[in-house]
Amino acid sequence: MTLPTTSNGWSIQSINKDSFDGLVRQDNVPIQKLGDHDILVQVEAVSLNYRDLAIPRGLYPFAMNLPVVPGSDAAGIVLAVGPKVTRLSKGDRVCTLFNELHQVNPISPDAVGSGLGGALDGTLRTYAVFPEHGLVLAPSSLDAIEASTLSCAPLTAWNALYGLQSKAVKAGDWVLTQGTGGVSLAAIQFAAAAGATVVATTSSNDKSEALKKLGASFVINYKETPNWGEAARALTPGGLGFDHILEIGGAGSIGQSLKAVKLEGVITIIGFLAPSEKQPPLMDALNHLCIVRGVFVGSRQQFEEMNRAIDSAKIHPVVDPNMFSLDDLKEAYMYQWERKHLGKVVVKVTV
């Protein structure tokens, strides 16, 4: 097989707070030479995150360098490996690591600045060269579409539930998730597989059954129940609260999470979907005697642990039924921006 020498894809050339016009199609881009520890990947599919939408609109608070190839999550096939590659082989299906330098915990400053699709060129292209340490073997039980969803949202959920070893989720725990984004859906699946009881919140009663099918025991509509923190807490044994809360909304919802958390429970701050000028002071963590923890996806080690669990428990990521082609990338961005999706939005690249 003759290896490709050029790649087709997209680039974020500029920031536009009102549109995705900063996304520019770029074809026949030369592929970099394969180094000793590098791997050439044919990208099969890419899934989108809110972060991908935030970057071209200037809403992303972490490191980025423009121009940059967008996208962090992908699954693909290894076409060639450098002479010193040892973990992966030609023909393997692989997933990209969100932060290339985040190999083990704790995360380092260098790792924080190594995010694909922001600081480094990402995945929305037909072929790409990645360092061996920036890839993991995909779960054998998943196809390319499903595997493309793992790099950010499920790995973040895994880190939230298992990242603090002394507080790792276990049977009998109570877990609270927020909304129907990729992190929350994966967290429901992981927590339920561990034997925990899950309470999920949503703004749509139409999505309640889908959340229960994934493993949620109770669903609260936070629009109908604005004080959902206390309502959720009341569901827990003795009204003692939750062992784990995945805080997706951010400043606009953490006050409710504090109302719901158990003494010595863990609130993992993940998202910034609900900005607000009014938010609880940091010292409220003392008042509630809880751990408030920020996470930034997860490490390669955690990714490999998660993939083994996915294969073992036969977990399949939730993928939105509407698929997009690489040519339709802006339409895919708008589809997710308008929150029309349930599950991960996937762009088929070469699959």
From TrEMBL:
Show the stretches that span the lipid bilayer. none
The Enoyl reductase (ER) domain covers 18-347
Q: Which GO terms describe its molecular function?
A: oxidoreductase activity
Q: Name one Pfam family in it.
A: ADH_zinc_N
What SUPFAM superfamilies does UniProt report for this protein, alphabetically? GroES-like (SSF50129), NAD(P)-binding Rossmann-fold domains (SSF51735)
What protein name is recorded for this chain?
Alcohol dehydrogenase
Organism for this UniProt entry: Pochonia chlamydosporia 170
